[in-house]
Amino acid sequence: MRTSSPRLSARLLSKDAPVLALIAPPRLARFRELAGISEDDVIGADFTGWSKLVLLTTDLAVLFPRDHTQVEALEREVEALCALEPVGLPEVPDIVAVWDDRALSAHPVVAVRRLPGSMLDHVVEDIDSDALAGVLDQVMTLAARWHQADPGVLASRPRRAHPKQARVDALLAAEGTELRDAAVEVAARLGLPRPQQHRLEAVLERARALEPVLVHGDLHEGQILVDGDLRVTGILDWQTARVAHPFTELDLGEWGTAAWRGHRPRFPQLRRRAWTTYAAARGLDTDLEDVFEAFWSVVHALRWPESVHVGSAVTGTFDEAMDAVRAAL
Question: What would the pLDDT profile of 142-156 be if each residue is shown by its tens digit?
């Protein structure tokens, strides 16, 4: 293993060297020693994450909490990756090391195996919906496997505060909301007639029969790596992992604007197909595809006022959202 000499290379100390954003020059030698990299190795970065900052070597992704408030999120990610390790999914990063070393950083740092591929969000708006359906088939097949993992200590972790998740959890009974009360509240907010309210009660009753599982918790096109043939090569960012209802794993309402612009009219078909793929992989009822679609169409309509600032060209109009609810119910 080569370590840095006391005299640091001029290239590494250039003003735009990304490693300097996270590691002060006197600590670079320690980082090189821990990561097993030489002065000639290129260190890239991805600073777009909301909860962590990432340095990239040829073989490693080194995760730093964005600030002290995100240390718990990184701990949760480590717990999730440890829980998933026995499942043996090559698309999930392996933990290489956890460094709690003040000579490197004030907060714990996690090194994971770097996965190949590029982010799906780079191409999601440009591919056709059939291609996206193929990607979702792969993702939901993988989800069926990680949903069978023992969550370990994550089972006792409190749910992270997230208003959108709280609404979904309440409808799926994770927060103890009575079924009829939930249906009555939704019907009142959306102006649903009595027959559709009764149908919603039936939808929620069937959905609530499914057992909670270990979910990624924030799966979207910015967390999925694909290769040039749109084969899924990685599922990243497990800091939102939790024990929750399996429906929560395909919340297209949490996907970015590019996916909505490119594929929103096909969301009902994409969701139904995704559930069929997932259910077949887990041996569940595939006829829950209509329940799955009804649930998410209702959730989207409930969320519509919150997302209106994005613009109806992205989200569609409220009338469109309600048309989808009526079709699904």
Answer: 999 999 999 999 998
**Which residue in the block uniquely carries the two structure tokens 């956890």?**
98
Contact at 8 Å (CB) between 234 and 91? yes
Mean pLDDT of the chain: 90
Instruction: Please give the radius of gyration of the chain, using alpha carbons only, rounded to the nearest integer.
Output: 22
Q: Coil, helix or strand for 329?
A: coil
Claim to verify: residue 48 and residue 95 sit in the same structural domain: yes
Residues 139 and 109 in one domain: no
* End residue of a domain, out of 79, 113, 147: 113
Angle of the 163-171 helix axis to the 289-307 helix axis, nearest 10: 150
Q: Give me the phi and psi of 53, to 5 degrees please.
A: -115, 145
Residues 6 or more apart whose CB falls under 8 angstroms from that of 52 comprise: 63, 64, 65, 66, 70, 73, 74, 239
Candidates 209, 185, 207; CA nearest to 197 is 185
CB 188 within 8 A of CB 221: no
pLDDT score of 165 = 82
- H or E segment at 138? helix 129-146
Structural domain range at position 143: 118-328
Distance CA 323, CA 329 (A): 10
**First vs last C-alpha separation in the chain:** 62
Residue type at 128 in one-letter notation: D
* DSSP code for 65: E
CA–CA distance, 318 with 140 (Å, rounded to integer): 29
Residue 2 lies in a domain: no
Residues 92 and 126 reside in one and the same domain: no
Q: Is residue 61 part of a domain?
A: yes
Considering only CA atoms, which of 303, 265, 65 is closest in space to residue 171? Answer: 303
The pTM for the full model equals 0.90
**Cβ proximity of 126 and 51 under 8 Å:** no
On whether the CB atoms of residues 200 and 183 are closer than 8 A, the answer is yes
Same domain, 104 and 127: no
pLDDT over 90 for what percent of the chain? 76
* Element holding 82 (H helix, E strand): helix 71-84
